[in-house]
Amino acid sequence: MLPERHPNLAIIYSNIGDIHRLMGDYERTLSFHRKVLNIQENVRCNPLECATTYTNLDETYREMKDYSTALTYFEKGLEIREKNIPKNHPDVAVIYHNIAKLYLSTGKYSMTMKSVQQAVEIAQEKLSSNHPHLLVYRETLEKTPKKL
């Protein structure tokens, strides 16, 4: 009943794409997230919604081990967030942590360390000491080889 490019369809497509990513069906994931991006680019939407779509795409490409494409989407999402929310917002920490995971996967440990430290610093400032995100960021920090 909704028009082809209705913003509510973008939400539905995004959720379906997330389910396919969890099932490891990356081609279908990408198909749904591209539909979302197409709607968002053609309908006036909140820029943070586009940033979330970029995050969904970057995580998918990271899981597919297409690290250069993932990094492109990470950077787009981070740029939008930095323009629209405070630089110490917990959502920015999520992006830094995702970038750290990408660098960890590629063996770029100095970049991993820089990104995960940014995530930890934001989380320590903005989240409770037992918040699940902060605990995961610290775990990534501990897993990062110290010999850079």
Give the overall shape, derived from the CA principal axes.
globular
Distance between the termini: 55 Å
- What is the assembly state of the chains in this entry? single chain
β-strand number: 0
What is the SS-derived class?
mainly alpha
* Low-confidence sequence ranges: none
Q: Report the sheet-strand fraction.
A: under 5%
Main β sheet profile: none
Describe this structure in words.
This protein is mainly alpha-helical. It is 78% helix and 0% strand. The protein has helices at residues 7-22, 26-42, 47-63, 67-84, 90-106, 109-126, 132-143.
Gist?
It contains seven helices and no strands. It has 148 residues and is mostly helical.
Name the features.
mainly alpha, 78% helix
Task: Describe how the helices and strands are arranged.
Elements: H1 7-22, H2 26-42, H3 47-63, H4 67-84, H5 90-106, H6 109-126, H7 132-143
Helix pairs in contact: 1-2, 2-3, 3-4, 4-5, 5-6, 6-7
